[in-house]
Write a structure and sequence with these properties.
By secondary structure, the protein is mainly alpha-helical. The chain has helices spanning 12-27, 32-39, 43-51, 58-68, 96-106, 111-142. The radius of gyration is 20 Å and the shape is extended.
Length: 143
């Protein structure tokens, strides 16, 4: 008699992908029930996906990406082969405010408006960085 294969366990990558699905879902104001209905599963199954308890098949992951209006590689960006999440651009998507900003920005069809908004955000970031540099210089001078 042959032994039955063991079920595949969820990995760190499954948990990271699930967390990104949850963050995108929340940023778009979708409930777990709405997401589940749209992809043909129960809200309990969505919970299992988001917590990384259950793996998500390729077809279902593509359906989720389509529904959330993101490329499927959004869920995989910056995952190392070990399945651990590393710091990088995709880690930014763990912050719901970043997701809201990106989703709002990408919904603007006018390229001139998008360029203007990007200039404003870059200017605000540069201002913050120059303030932080000045504070670091002051602290170093006091030492």
């Amino acid at each position: 008699m042959s032994s039955s294969p063991k079920p595949k366990s969820a990995t760190d990558a499954d948990r990271t992908i699930g967390g990104r699905i949850a963050a995108l879902r929340v940023a778009q104001g979708l409930s777990q029930t709405n997401l589940g209905q749209a992809i043909g599963v129960s809200f309990q199954q969505v919970q299992k996906y988001e917590k990384g308890r259950n793996r998500i098949g390729a077809g279902r992951l593509q359906a989720i990406a389509d529904l959330l209006k993101v490329p499927v590689d959004t869920f995989f960006a910056d995952l190392q082969e070990s399945g651990r999440d590393k710091a990088g651009p995709a880690a930014l998507f763990d912050d719901p405010k970043v997701l809201e900003l990106v989703l709002a920005f990408t919904s603007i069809p006018d390229e001139t408006t998008r360029s203007g908004i990007l200039s404003i955000v870059k200017a605000a970031a540069a201002l913050q960085e120059s303030r932080a540099s000045a504070q670091r210089a002051e602290a170093a001078a006091r030492e």
